[in-house]
């Protein structure tokens, strides 16, 4: 059984992932009994301040939280902090967000929500945001506000790509802009009366604010803003909201088609540049916006949620957030480390008895770096399985798990980004789906792993790596479960294509002959326990909505998303002509002693876990 890391050794080792200047000291102190460094003490103090035990939700509301202005990075310039607060208060007054009233006029028993300042350090200034501490939990769908998937963003880029080639005279471009103080534009319904108490540094304690508009921190603020923005886009600009992807808006067809994708207050626009400029000018009549330059020339680039979109001669290149990864690399002290050939070793997926659990400080750091890795992996198929595997360890991570996190960032050090290349030249007609699974790959639960890549030609639209919800009794069942998940994603993308007035045919590629034979015929055969999944896919095949194909196991690119592969396998799959990736900037890291270990189910490797699975099946 894992043992908890002792406090005497945890304090000395916790400095390694915090600061690169103390990395060498932390490594030497891990084998000695030296005193804890000042860096680790500072980290412990910050964690204790920000991670406090709370008995219940009411306790969290009543508790006075520490002011973020007490952090040293913001104390250097108090004038900048006051200037940031003044800009925020001026914005609240400009948007008529509140009406100050005396607290005696508030109806008896009416809830008054506290507020606080949230300060963020920006280049040459401090951004101050006044937010409501609306912590009361309420499981109500009225608070739900949609956000788009990364697949929709990639689809929008490819829409612009093929439109550029088909309608060259229309000068298609991509524009990205940000709506300032978005939530403050949404007016509260008349039946919602909300009072908030302003911070003591800007108002008397006997004065409260009655809100006219949504304030950041209110639970209903995202929903109100989404409805307000949608009404402007649909009613004033004549866009049609997609019923399948509520964050996508479409207007026109063919050479005059304009697509608009919204992520809270960040908007990306695709269409003829003249029409896009008209849309932006119309939105400026309703909101204050920060607009970037349109992508009209080769080499022009813009940023959307940390992702970089770069225009090329025949399309676009989409790159993930490199700075977020470098932030963890610096905090882990890995700037001068040797790059790893793969993000995860096959030995990391095995159970090891007697592993030491991380102490609370290191546990918090583990969650931080794994969280960043999950965000980075959304744009990198080489990191998806690694991020998924490590995310399953956040409940009780061990020292070995933390070492696996450091290995993943050493891999990123050698390949900071994996750009997706989009060069569509014609209207899409086929949606290619690569599906694969690794049967009973989880040695703890013996659940299988599903991997999927969906592409237009060789241009990636969607990819995922997921642990299956139930234990598969055979490799064929694992393949069927993976295929069902992949087809569900493909049908979602097909519905978005229909919103763009385009019809595509789904082609499913599997490397399992048993699964292909089962899906090609009607009936359950010997797999009676998975009849729903079988009938679902078989019906789609009979209706010719999905066509089945056999792909060689060595050429199935989705194999990369189901297991920890060797460096040679990763090189072969990433270099495949079936997917468009820009691998020219960073070379592969070779390791001669790396063994290509296939993560197959073997009675000799993990006898105990496999015997338990056999007992379950029998």
Low-pLDDT segments, ≥5 res: 6-40, 43-72, 592-618
The whole-angstrom Rg is 27 Å
Approximate helicity band: 25-40%
Structural class: alpha+beta
Largest sheet: 6 strands, antiparallel
Report on the architecture of this protein.
The chain is an alpha+beta fold and 618 residues long. Helices cover 35% and strands 19% of the residues. The chain has a 6-stranded antiparallel beta sheet with strand order 8-9-10-11-5-12, with helices on both faces. The protein has a 5-stranded mixed beta sheet with strand order 2-7-6-3-4, with helices on one face. A hairpin with a 6-residue loop joins strand 9 and strand 10. Helix 10 packs antiparallel against helix 11, helix 10 packs across helix 13 and helix 14 packs across helix 16. The protein is globular, with a radius of gyration of 27 Å. The two termini are 28 Å apart.
